[in-house]
## 1
Amino acid sequence: MKLPIYLDYSATCPVDPRVASKMAEQMTMEGNFGNPASRSHLYGWKAEEAVEEARRHVAELVNADPREIVWTSGATESDNLAIKGAAHFYQSKGKHIITSKIEHKAVLDTCRQLEREGFEVTYLNPREDGIVYPEQVEEALREDTILVSLMHVNNEIGVINDIAAIGELCRAKKVVFHVDAAQSAGKLPIDLAEMKVDLMSFSAHKAYGPKGIGALYVRRKPRVRLEAQMHGGGHERGMRSGTLPTHQIVGMGEAFRIAKEEMGAENERLIALRNRFWDQIKDMEEVHINGSVEQRVPGNLNVSFAFVEGESLIMSLRDLAISSGSACTSASLEPSYVLRALGVNDELAHSSLRFSFGRFTTESDVDTAAVEVRKAVEKLRELSPLWDMYKDGIDLNTIEWAAH
Amino acid sequence: MAYSDKVIDHYEHPRNVGRLDDKSDNVGTGMVGAPACGDVMRLQIQVNENGVIEDAKFKTYGCGSAIASSSLLTEWVKGKSIDEAEQIKNTAIAEELALPPVKIHCSVLAEDAIKAAVKDIRAKRGLVSGGAGEAQEEAAS
């Protein structure tokens, strides 16, 4: 067994070996190294062919037209291009944007930037289960709303928004609908011929492709217009200039091709692994799953272990590669903004861990992880004055704590 | 985040974990921090008639540095008088454990904990041994 056991697939995935070997063919003198934009020789033509094949694979995973796929450097850039690009293009129609409080920072910070430019942003609060409901969007829509941006699957808690229903609402009001699908592409069925989504962000490395490459879906019918954020040689129909990185693109294409083929079986396996893990820890006292259990992507489990602090828990679990729901490890002492938006109290938010399982996770990995987690939680509860108080029947909410 | 060897040692082998009877007249309890902030420390000291700390126990909810700071503190206060113990400075704890700047607040919390425990035992002694007069005297000194 390779230690530490990798249970952080929501952060990034290892590249699938099938993907890596295809990528390796696109780089050296013997390989397909040409510039896809070179029109005057075979090297360029062959590179272009590889790029277009990859574009088809990405389009096929989400049932789109290949001409609707724009390559970017990743989901962060896709989010920036979609939100700023649409806001800038449509600002003469209105300056109101709707998003949620639990979006990825790539969306939240982009919205903050637009606020500085004079746009007005409504940040919807998800319900306790972590889901943003269509009726919440409906209530927030205004005459001057030009854009709604919501994630398909949340990166911390893995819950799924009903983007098909939200898309219907937006289309009826002729509002552009952007969806960040970084955590859902390859994990959930997405049919863009059916769903009324106008812009969708994808990342390769969350689906066993390489880092540094992503894509933005830009709907052709009805046509959605964007103002380019990167200017230059006019690549990607003028929406995103810059020489196309053939090896990265081929990697993303292959990763998405494999995802389409294997998604069904993989999801069944991941749900079984997740249940196997949860079954081994759920009988512990005061252990809670954050976010909806039913409406959740297969590989994610976000759990609060009450009366134990997340960072020390991670320190105990040195044989597991996991992340804390709280951002303590990044030198900020604030608990997760996602969990807080769900109404999880600060104490539980400090006590949460995200386990994310993936293609290379085995049953013995999750068994070991469950044993380690139990051991660590028990040890830290023995050390915890809050656990003592809980055991003495004291309600922690009745105590006046001195915040520091 | 990389922890110093001393933090890891205290974290993995915490000294003096436990609980003393907080109803006892010889036990001072200091509970500081807040769950919402991610740190709560409970430090207890058992003090003899001469004002010397004979035993110390802690329990801490918090990160590795908070646990290490309180564990170290229990080692340091044992055998000290309460007057000496309350002179312990957070900077000494931070230095001993080589805490990084973002974890300095853990050592501050430990200093607060010993101060609170000493205050508690003083209050108890004041009430128990001589009534209100002595307590006021102590508070004034």
## 2
Amino acid sequence: MKKATKQTASLLMAGAMTAALLAGCGGAPASTAPSSAATSEQTATPAASQDAATDLSKQEPYTVKILMLDDGNTDIVNEVAAAASEITLAKFNTTIELERVGWGSWAQQAMLQLTSGEKLDLLPAFSLNTSLANLVSNGYIVPMTDLLKDGPGAEMYAMVPEEDWLCDTVNGEIYGVPFNKGKQNVYGASCDTTYADELNIDLSAIKTLDDFEQALAKIKEAHPDIYPMATDGQKMRVMVPSDTLGDPREVVMGCLVDATSGSTTVENLYASDAYRDFVERMYDWQQKGYIMPDTISNTVSGSDLIRAGAFANFYTGPAPDTAPRLSRETGKPIQDVEFFEHYKTTGETSPCWSIAANSENPERAMQVLNEMYTNPELANIFIYGIEGKTYEFIDDSRTVIDYPAGVDASNAGYAFDHWAWPNMCLSYVWNGYPTDVYKQYETFNAGGVLSPAYGFTFDNSSVINEYTACTNVVMKYAEALNTGSLNPEGNLDKFNQELKENGIDTIIAAKQAQLDAWLAAK
Amino acid sequence: MEKTVWQRFTRAIRKFWPLYLMAALGLLYLFINNYMPMAGLVLAFKQYNARKGIWGSDFNGLKNFEFLFKTRDAWIITRNTIAYNAVFIVLGTIFSVTVAILLNEVRSAKAKKLYQTVTLIPYMVSIVVVSYLANALLATDNGFINTQVLAPLGQDPVAWYTTPGPWPVILVLINLWKGFGYSSIIYFATLVGINREYYEAAVIDGASWWQQVTHVTLPGLKNTIITMTLLSVGRIFYSDFGLFYQVPMNSGPLYDVTNTIDTYVYRGLMQNNNIGMASAAGFYQSLVGFALVLAANTIVKKISPENALY
């Protein structure tokens, strides 16, 4: 009798909380959601979470469906879900359902699940070809501020720096838990050290693109038959340290051209001197044979080109440890060189775990998410799979792991992307990485300059027509210019002329206005 | 009156029920696949919000359509879409009809089968594979045309993927090569159905081969040609996405001659995932296609009423 009452009560409370959440409670007056149910139930919310916290394992049974990117063999994924469920059932009476989707179809599959209304609780809001603001304005994910601050996510909430939460905040509500991964903007090149050793090039002395160009010249002279500079398929990363203000690096509609300068003027990247210098340099490299001709129809990735004999590939990344990964992928000794000071932007911090609008019970989803962020046992099950099957320990202290004998990346059946799970820093260290790699991450993340717009997210809905038109223009010119396939002389001006005609100034004005308002509110 | 119609209908069902049963499955498929989703067209006029659902989302008038016209490229993408399709329809028809007539002249049954199969193969090949075949021909440093054709002639290699000029020809050739096998089979099937006695009569009257073609074969094909063309006209506002996106390898410098409505919408919305705008583009395309089919059919009706679709 007593138990039944309690269950009913907690169910009611949970229901009330859900309704309140869906109504966008938490004092967002401009919320677009229906507010009829909100007022009466808002008061019940804090009580509900406290009550429920006392006896979470007695909750109604619930299934949390998690969607995660990258490949997984169905049998192993189900095993992982079963192993994870053991923990969550004991603690929350919650069963885990896990589905993994390969990179190739990730964006499409994830968006399909979000739009179709299919059951889905948790997913990484990452690489979905859309911004967090768009996910919010389309109603695909739910706000989680209350669930974090004084709900089941409180423990996790305290662990993430406050300014990082801003990067996943839209209209005053938090919509995601940022991945605990590298959060800096690093611009550099991954270099095959065999060439450097052979020609006595001191890679550690390379600090600028000019230094780097000299190294390329030496290598080209000694090996005239190779193209020392690789591209990523048709793409070349742009070495301009800008804050794209939430845009993907491939298509930038107005940015802070130098994020480290402290300036808050939004400018057109493609009209900037820094960009002109870069594409002129690339065209020059193309003429000198540093870059392969016809990059426009190249489909081979940068790491594959390095494996095939190229010297270096540009990278833009959030992490300090790309070299060991690339060494593993290419089978060559790789060393990184960097060109600019590290800095932090919303773009690198904002990839996050979100609760889908299709979740019947966001509170239960948050309980699991918090556990994934704080419980090393659960985190490692999700990240690395099943011990003995997809990984095994190679040291006695059980901290360093590698593939079991006879298993490698191609047949493990469970892809490792520790950075894309909520809290990478709980995970075991992969063989070849420094054992204190996560300590290094901490120091790494603590340093660096903050972009003045750190935490700002642009909502492009008011300029969506101009945005669509300009995206087409950027795609028309940028890749060909970035790889040096197109002569910037004349073409760069034509590019900017077309951007102007399609309304980039309107976008930039809107961005500036939103940024100014955000800065003022801050 | 109504009663008699109903009676006639029930009688027909009793009499031909196996045929109706066979048709029922097809109709059910049409209904589920082609009619039920039509309700979703309402999304073209809404600001879609997943939490409010298809019906609950707010209307926003014609705002979703604006992006199609607010670009300077609106003219280019419309011109490319229609002009390419018009050329495809005209050349494609001429080419497939010619092939069908030639196939019809082949006497050996074995050779006929062989030719049919060979011409059909390109139609079966995935457009992605086609794009790599084209790349094998056109690649700048090791493509067949640059190394085996232009170099022996003493010509400089051409950077095909950054030179827009030849692409209209390349795309038309690829489309013809890929599509003619399929449509020529349809025309060939009609040709086989033409009564041989017409030809015998023509021969007795002293008609040459060419006169047989123009006076017997082509009139026999007229119906099929008109139907096939009307169907193509209905899709004149859609472009073959694979042909215009995959085959030019999505190369920016070629956009002036390869950007069509479909590729424009795809590139523009890839970053936005805006369902309303995507529906608006589809709605606009089908509306124009529908209007063009009506217009084309009216013209056909005026010229030769017995050949109109309806």
## 3
Amino acid sequence: MNEYKNLTKQGLWENNPALVQLLGLCPLLAVTASVTNAMGLGLATLFVLVGSNITVSLVREFIPSEIRIPVFVMVIATFVTIIQLLMNAYVFQLYQSLGIFIPLIVTNCAIIGRAEAYASKNPWQRAAFDGLAMGVGFALVLIVLGAMREIIGNGTLFDGAELLLGEWAAQLRIELFTVNYPLLLAILPPGAFIGMGFIIALKNKIDAVRSARAEKKTVTRARVTA
Amino acid sequence: MSFKIAPSPHGHNQRTTSEMMRWVCYALVPGVLLQSYFFGPGVWFQITLAVATAVLAEMACTVARERPAFSALRDNTAIVTAILLAISIPSLAPWWVIVIGTLFAIVVVKHVYGGMGQNLFNPAMAGYVLLLISFPVQMTNWLPASTISEHSLTLWQTLHTILFEYTPAGYSVEQLRAGIDGVTMATPLDTIKTELTRGYTLTEIYQGPEFSYFAGAGWQWINLGFLVGGLLLIQQRIISWHIPLGFLAGLCLPAFIAHIFAPDLMPGPIVHALSGATMLGAFFIATDPVSAATSNRGRVIFALLIGFIVFVIRSWGGYPDAVAFAVLLANMCVPLIDRYTRPVVYGHGD
């Protein structure tokens, strides 16, 4: 059980693929202009990550280590094709707005990184959980960045959520404030880089504060009388 | 005891940073006076707003960084950044434009990178690019110069327009830009760009009301005003001649060559030199000691690069003027330029 707790901690915080490993930045920066897009791509990546981790872990005994990378890529590509066809069938508008970034999940280094570093060395239950933790960590960063950019650039939250979640989700749309002139920079690619920088800075700050606190706790009183 | 940090390259010049920055402000006066003559008193409101925002933002940042609140204000750099940004934007831009731009320049571009002397990019120009990309309509709403404009605004009308985006009589800035024939007038560089794409030659374009003796009406005198101020800075040894000369050479030499080959399609060097933000950029913006290259040789390369990028974007790019983009692009090259132009230590070279 301890292993699972550790995996959760690694995936969500200490070794977060987006904030610490800085992997998969291309889709991260490109599609996070709104929460809906971020959520769509986050879920797709999560699915692919879990699927590829399980498969790689199951076949790890049979793959010669010389050709393991091509095999991993083909496994990942299979799951990406599945998710791409599924999105094409069920959430077509979101599929169109994400465009090329769905097939590009194949090249997301976070996925092949997990396959190589964890799934190819561990049993499938753990590999599946590792994929889940890493995928959730990645998706959360996507959603936070998407929310930040959507609020600053558009003044809304969950705009177009019905594209992903169905008709009922149209009510999720929150209009925080109306702007006559949106701050376009937040929606454009530079806004993604700047926003990402701030999120990483915030994470480092939290870590610094926490480690400073932990240090204080361990200070023990020196004995002055013998 | 305090360490006084002389501006880069940290040579001995017996002037403090705050004194140098004060001189920069004085040198801006002729250009700003001409600008307020040609584009109305709005520029003074913009400067006031920008300086107030910059001072507050600087104090907030220094407090947040656990330093004494007034320590950073004493060097006057925030004020210079604010003034440069304020005179770069249209004088009737809504108040929130300059506030957002100044906040970004001071908080993100300057203090996030470590405060005075640490910023990679020129804060004023980074703020300007943020505004230009985010609010393209407000940032290109330049009035025609007062000598050819149909409207002239009083002090109160100007303030009202900056605060509420309309004059007391209900005109928008867009409507104020219209000439007597109801056609909206653009800046000279913008006019050249759009009319060339419509198939006119430069000879025909120069007949338009936006142009007079050398270049654009109004703009040429403002540029000459900044030239005078810049020469004052060189005479006072606040800036060296390398960057302004390199900038103008990088811009005017290609312009001259292009003008010889295609006289009716490529504006000549004088039009380039006296249009848009050329002189402001050459003497006041590119010469920022922090984000420019360090050695004299490096500065020449840096400035030539800026001038050439300005020429390229003005001639073939999507924007009519390009000083801000050129300065930021050249700022990115500075570490590389500095690496290859490191002066040889006496006795160690070959």
